[in-house]
Amino acid sequence: MLTCSITTKKIAPPGGDSKLIMEHGVIFIMGVSGSGKTTIGEGLSARTGFEFYDADDFHTKEKVEKMRAGIPLTDDDRWPWLESIHAFVTEKIKTADVIVVCSALKQVYRDKLSAGIEKYCQWVFLNGDYDTIMGRMQKRAGHYMPPTLLQSQFDTLEVPVDAIRIDITREPSIIIDDIMTHIGNGYD
């Protein structure tokens, strides 16, 4: 199993107690709906042994139904969701390396998710064009996010400047290899 070097920092609480607080990290895989976050996150988890979590699982039933009805979420809808994910990740990385897939479309969302744990975070942006992703969304079954909301995702997207940018037009195994190459010097 690989371990990420972003996990090697040990932080002691105020007062100098040597008790270990955090020694693990998180890889956030972000992008618009249909960009392949779950496929890539699960594959990267299988390769690294990092625990995998999908931010979609943190949405309330109410928010899922809103999206299923074709209504985009607002910032007010997203804040409690982002706070829940942040709290979960902050606690989880005390004991494990994790991969979290999350749209994280705006910089302010990414800032919220990594607040206070920035040095333990690595961001990966799955980048693709509208037509490629729309084609994928029209073929997938069983997901609550309708293709009609894709344009709202692109309208909201603020392309990150501090993330590994990955072209999604390649096979998942190649994409995972590419991610591992980019973060390779972060592995022991």
Topology (elements, then pairings):
Blueprint: E1 26-30, H1 37-48, E2 51-54, H2 61-68, H3 75-92, E3 98-101, H4 107-114, E4 121-127, H5 130-139, H6 150-156, E5 164-167, H7 172-182
Helix pairs in contact: 1-7, 3-4
Task: Give your account of this protein's structure.
The chain has 7 helices and 5 strands, in the order βαβααβαβααβα. It has a 5-stranded parallel sheet with strand order 2-3-1-4-5, with helices on one face. It is 39% helix and 13% strand. The protein is an alpha/beta fold. The protein has a single domain (27-185), classed as P-loop containing nucleotide triphosphate hydrolases (Rossmann fold).
User: End-to-end span in angstroms?
Assistant: 10 Å
> From the alpha-carbon coordinates, what is the Rg to the nearest angstrom?
17 Å
Low-confidence stretches: 1-22
- Output mean pLDDT: 83
Proportion of residues in extended strands = 5-15%
Helix run count: 7
Tell me the CATH topology: Rossmann fold
Overall CATH architecture: 3-Layer(aba) Sandwich
At the fourth level of CATH, the homologous superfamily is P-loop containing nucleotide triphosphate hydrolases
List the secondary-structure elements in sequence, H or E: EHEHHEHEHHEH
Characterize this entry briefly.
This protein has 188 residues and is an alpha/beta fold. It has one domain (27-185): P-loop containing nucleotide triphosphate hydrolases (Rossmann fold), CATH 3.40.50. It has seven helices and five strands, in the order βαβααβαβααβα.
